[in-house]
Write a structure and sequence with these properties.
heterodimer; A: about 70% helix
Chain lengths: ~350, ~550
């Protein structure tokens, strides 16, 4: 077997093991949350008998280990069980499967993450390359300060500034800015097209409309993640510049740009890929604030809501998907590190 | 070979001036100050001529060689003087102008081929890059030409080797591939910067021969930088000896070898003349019997190795990289437990694993490493470094420990001011002395010296070797001296062990091993050591091709 395939299988196996450990942690930590779904839904006035009956109807009276095994058994087959919401004594047609709830939300989240990645990753790598090329020059400094500013600002702030610009452009700034500020700001932002400040999408939203509505959240997230990836690109390239093969490339008459793109970048992919994977994982699991600002129906909001209402099956499924995302993206980064390293890809 | 020289090359007139350096001064920036590296040097190189630059580290030879390309390393600057290449002023030339010349008319062969090839690209891509980038040839022509150069440089499988990655070929092959890379545009000038220093002697012979042949074939001028006088004597028509950025002596090669005028030049021979008188002894301190060892469990790095080390004597283990000589040291120290065989010390079997040995056994076997830079903790002072074994093995503390440290410093010929210094504040030779003192502090019976002089300049090497011999006389310590350098072996050993591919080829007294009759490998090894004779390489190659025919 080719060593690369063996390594990938090995990592995949380790990933599954990690996922299993994570599932135990998720299940037991949600188990430890004070108060149960029954208390949450029936209110404080509920008698212990009602609570017990309610729990029994949901199967919550059985021991945790039994429930865990049952849940995991279903999960590996893609069945995350039924949501508590709408369960318990109501009519059978109100019962909703967790996968039906999560499915569309996950699609939306994935859509936004992919759109952001398409914008942010090329920009970050290009900026990183230029920053390395013109290191310590004015371009490098400006790019560094701008990206650091955007990463240092809270994401809801970045989001609201963008909303402000979108709204202001359409309706005039008089409504949102103090008197006299509108005319000052307007010339700088009037070239920006009218972007929808609310990203309300539903199952039937056509693809391009979805893209259009998701642009502002995507830009917000881009501003949040670009700095990290760009700085890693810059740093890993600069750290390679002291290598003798870089000097050799210079002395072969290559221009600084050729030296960086042809001779430094191919050796820098591994650390860059790791940071990109990390940021893409964040795009899937960590964007609840941006979802709230733009009222975008993603999986982050769903998880927060389900934890609030003690809807365990949904919360567990979300957490498991998040963990799987991290593991999978890191696996991809590992694979990139292997295939971009000829020493590993083509052993002696 | 004129038949396949391009028409343009015929206009190259042998004998006209190609490079002229006048009054060159270069400063380097370190410790927040500018220091002079080159202090006013002149150099004239004619077309087709090979000039050798020789000197110790810090002599400025690489800096001067690179300056002939119009290049200075980051942190260096030309402060005065001129560099003219074929009428072009390189000091004031624009970067674009220099880039036009680099790779096409002036090219560079670096010391470590394995570090100077980009690990991410195949050899062919890198060898043809200059030619394609400068638009000298199209891709097909450049690849055909590269294969032709590979053939001329006698690389194995010249038609397919270009498809390999740098890590897939050996160091000697890489160095030849780099020469092909430098030749790809048929430059007027090649700078060879210590191109064989990292190679084994047997490989060095092949690489030197290949480089010399191709430089002659294409009538290329070259600047050959090295610290090894015997090597440069094979390559250069003329030699410049440099020290501290100044010229010591310049002469035609034969004239310089015959009659060097300066004391400094003569001292470069010194270590080769150092020779300890061998002494025979049958009192065996440590013996290794039929030992096998491997790292992965698959390939045997040591294969049925048997070595006897007599008490109070020096046994030199000599061999090329990969011969297993350092692994032998690891097996003796217990860092790599042998998979088979016995190691006995003072007549008793040593536990195979380091963890199973008691403290007193550990104390009796000490080690000194090749690179004092990595073997000494840069954040510890000499007091901590030497004091640690005193505390650990002998239980000394406080004033008594300090007194012993000063005594040890005295033994290694450093004064007591060194006690509070950090490794960064010492020279390479001083750092290696500290390593020796650290080993000595444990009052060991055996010291294993692993290439301890390889990273040092000739003159410093001689001092260290003399020191080691003096210490042996005073303390009766036994040395197991691992080295690849025959001159060092000659200087220090009583007995010699020759290793090749994990096996012991020969063990015996120095006079027996270094004199005929030889086993085949010992003969190959000894005949590959460059001699102070400009005809050595020519004679050797003739002899070898005669023997092969």
């Amino acid at each position: 077997m080719h060593p690369v395939i063996r390594t990938v299988l090995q990592r995949l196996g380790l990933g599954l093991l990690t996922l299993f450990a994570v599932s135990v942690i998720i299940f037991s930590s949600l188990e430890l949350l004070p108060g149960g779904f029954a208390e949450a839904i029936l209110g404080q006035g509920a008698t212990p008998e009602t609570v017990a009956a309610f729990n029994k109807s949901l199967g919550l009276d059985r021991p945790p280990v039994t429930r865990y095994v049952e849940w995991l058994g279903g999960a590996v087959q893609g069945d995350f069980g039924k949501s508590f919401a709408g369960a318990g004594g109501w009519r059978e047609e109100n019962v909703r499967f967790v996968s039906d709830i999560i499915g569309p939300r996950f699609y939306n989240t994935f859509f936004l993450a992919a759109l952001t990645a398409l914008i942010a990753v090329p920009i970050a790598i290009a900026l990183g390359l230029f920053a390395a090329l013109y290191r310590n020059g004015w371009f490098d400094r400006i790019i560094n300060s701008v990206t650091l500013t955007t990463i240092a600002s809270p994401e809801f702030f970045v989001a609201y500034v963008l909303v402000l610009i979108a709204v202001g452009n359409k309706n005039g700034f008089a409504a949102v800015l103090p008197d006299g500020w509108g005319p000052m700001v307007k010339p700088f932002v009037s070239w920006i097209p009218d972007l929808p400040p609310l990203a309300t999408v539903s199952k039937g939203t056509p693809f391009w409309e979805h893209v259009w509505k998701a642009i502002l959240p995507a830009i917000t997230l881009t501003l949040v993640i670009v700095a990290h990836m760009m700085r890693m690109t810059r740093a890993s390239i600069i750290s390679l510049l002291a290598n003798p093969y870089i000097e050799m490339a210079k002395l072969k008459g290559l221009s600084p740009r050729q030296v960086i793109v042809r001779h430094a970048l191919p050796n820098a992919w591994a650390p860059i890929a790791t940071v990109i994977a990390f940021n893409l994982a964040y795009l899937v699991v960590g964007v609840v604030v941006v979802e709230v600002v733009f009222t975008y129906p993603g999986i982050g909001q769903l998880m927060v809501d389900s934890v609030g209402s003690r809807d365990m099956p949904v919360a567990q499924a979300c957490a498991l998907i998040f963990a799987a995302t991290y593991i999978l993206l890191n696996l991809v980064a590992d694979i990139i590190a292997i295939v971009t390293n000829p020493r590993l890809l083509h052993p002696k | 070979m004129t038949s396949d020289v391009k028409p343009a090359d015929k206009s190259r007139v042998k004998g006209s001036t190609l490079v002229e350096i006048k009054g060159l001064k270069i400063d380097g920036y370190s410790d927040d100050k500018w220091h002079p590296i080159i202090k006013g040097l002149d150099l004239t190189l004619k077309r087709g001529e090979v000039i050798g630059l020789i000197g110790e580290s810090g002599a400025g030879k690489s800096t001067l060689g690179l300056a002939a390309m119009g290049y200075t390393k980051p942190g260096c600057k030309i402060t005065a003087g001129s560099v003219t290449f074929d009428g072009i002023d390189l000091v004031n030339a624009s970067q674009d102008r220099l880039r036009e010349l680099w790779g096409s008319r002036i090219s560079y062969v670096a010391q470590s081929a394995s570090a100077s090839f980009n690990p991410a690209h195949k050899l062919m891509e890198q060898v043809t890059e200059s030619a394609l980038n400068h638009g000298v040839m199209d891709k097909a022509a450049a690849e055909a030409d590269a294969k032709d150069l590979f053939k001329r440089l006698q690389l194995p499988n010249p038609d397919t080797i270009g498809g390999r990655y740098p890590h897939q070929v050996s160091g000697g092959q890489l160095q030849r591939a780099m020469t092909a890379m430098a030749m790809s545009c048929r430059p007027d000038l090649i700078i060879f910067d210590e191109p064989t220093t990292a190679l084994d002697v047997t490989t060095q012979v092949e690489v030197l021969a290949a480089m010399r042949r191709i430089v002659e074939e294409f009538n290329t001028a070259a600047i050959y930088i090295t610290h090894d006088l015997a090597v440069v004597a094979q390559m250069a028509h003329r030699i410049m000896v440099l020290r501290y950025g100044n010229l010591v002596e310049e002469a035609e090669t034969r004239a310089m070898l015959k009659a060097p005028t300066q004391d400094y030049t003569k001292s470069l021979w010194a270590v080769r003349k150092l020779e300890k008188k061998e002494e025979k002894s049958d009192d065996i301190a440590l013996s290794v019997s039929n030992v096998d060892a491997s790292y992965s469990g698959v390939v045997k790095v040591l294969d049925n190795v048997t070595v006897r080390i007599p008490r109070g004597k020096t046994v030199a283990v000599v061999g090329e990289s990969g011969s297993g000589k350092s692994t032998l040291a690891r097996a003796i120290t217990g860092l790599l437990p042998p998979s088979k065989g016995r190691i006995s010390f003072n007549g008793k079997d040593l536990p195979a694993r380091l963890q199973d040995r008691d403290r007193d056994t550990l104390r009796r076997i000490q080690m000194i490493y090749q690179s004092a830079d990595t073997a000494l903790n840069p954040r510890q002072t000499v007091r901590d470094i030497i004091g640690r074994p005193l505390e650990f093995y002998l239980g000394l503390t406080g004033a008594e420990k300090d007194r012993r440290i000063v005594k040890l410093l005295d033994a290694i010929e450093l004064n007591e001011d060194f006690i509070d210094r950090y490794p960064g504040e010492m020279s390479g030779g001083q750092k290696q002395r500290i390593s020796i003192a650290r080993a000595l502090a444990a009052e060991p019976e055996i010291i294993i010296c692993d290439e301890v002089t390889s990273a040092l300049d000739q003159i410093v090497q001689e001092e260290i070797l003399k020191l080691l011999m003096k210490l042996q006389k005073e303390t009766k310590v036994t040395y197991l001296f691992i080295t690849h350098d025959i001159a060092t072996v000659r200087a220090i050993s009583d007995e010699i062990v020759v290793m090749y591919k994990g096996k012991v080829v020969q063990q015996g007294l120095k006079s027996d091993v270094l004199n005929p009759p030889y086993p085949a490998y010992t003969e190959l090894l000894l005949s590959s050591v460059p001699q102070m004779d400009p005809d050595w390489l020519t004679t050797l190659l003739r002899k070898r091709s005669g023997a092969a025919a």
